[in-house]
Amino acid sequence: xxxxxxxxxxxxxxxxxxxxxxxTVALLLLPGLLWLGIFFVVPLFTLAGTSTQTPSGSGIPxxxxxxxxxxxxxxxxxxxxxxxxxxxxxxxxxxLLCLAIGYPLAYLIALKAGRLRNLLLVxxxxxxxxxxxxRTLAWRQILSDDGTVVSTLKWLHLIPQDxxxxxxxxxxVAGITYNFLPFMVLPxxxxxxxxxxxxxxxxGDLYGNGFAVLRKVTFPLSMPGVVAGTLLTFIxxxxxxVNAALLGNSRTTMVGNVVESRFxxxxxxxxAAVLSFVLMAIILVLVVxxxxxAGTEELV
Length: 300
What we know:
By secondary structure, the protein is mostly helical. It has helices spanning 5-50, 71-112, 117-125, 132-142, 148-155, 169-193, 197-205, 210-221, 223-238, 242-247, 255-264, 269-294, and strands at residues 53-55, 64-66. The chain folds into two domains: 5-50; 75-294, MetI-like fold (Orthogonal Bundle).
C-alpha cells in the first residue's frame, strides 16, 4: 500500500496543477481582454446601434432616436457605391504597386545585402519617424506642377504638357503606395530571411535559371510574407482618408473621407456608422477569401 501512495498523490496533483496553469493563463489574458472589450467590442455594438437610428424630428442637428431602421443600409450603399468601388480600386492598385516595389527590395535586403542589411532596414522604417500627415503633404510638393518630378516627366514627353498630377487619382495612389510600402517590405523581408539558402542553391543545381528559381522556389516559400504584407497594406489603405483629402479632389473621394465628413461636419451619425460597418464587412469577407485562396498554412 505504501508503494501505491506516491502514485495516487501524483494523480491528485495533476488537476491542481492544471487549475493553477489555467488561472495563470486567465490572469495574463485579462488585461488584453478588458482592453478589447472596452475599446473594441463596446464601441462596435454602439456603432451598430447608431447605424439603425433615424432623426428625432426635433430639428436639432445630431439628435437621433433608435428605430432599428435597417433601410439605412440599403439607402447608404446605393448612394455611396461609387465611393466603395473607388476605395477598393485605389487600395488594390496601391497594394499591387507596393508588392511590385517591395518584393525586390525585401529580396535584396534579406538575401543579397550582407553587412548593409541593418542599414537598409533602418532606411525602410525611417519614414515612420515622420508624421503621416507631413509625409503626405511632402508629396504635394514632390508632385506639384512646377516641381522637378513633373517637369522632368513632361520634358521627356512621358505625360501630356497640360496634365496636372496633383489633385488627381495618380497622386492619391502614389501617396498610399509610399505611405504603406514599409508595411509590405517588413513581412516580406521576415519571410525571405527565413528561407534556407540551400533550397535556392538546389534549384540552381537542377539547372533552373534565376527567374525559374525565383518563380518555383523563392516566391512560393515566401508566400506567408506576401499574404501578410498585402493584408497589412490593403486593409488600412481601404479605409484611408488622409491621402485622398490632401492629394485628391472631389472626384477621388474615398469611403474614409465620407465617414469623416458625416461624423464631424454633417453630423449624420447613422450614415457614417453604416458606411463603417459595410466597409468592415466587405474587408472581412475579402480577407477570408484571399487567405483561403492563398493557402498558406501559417495564416489559415
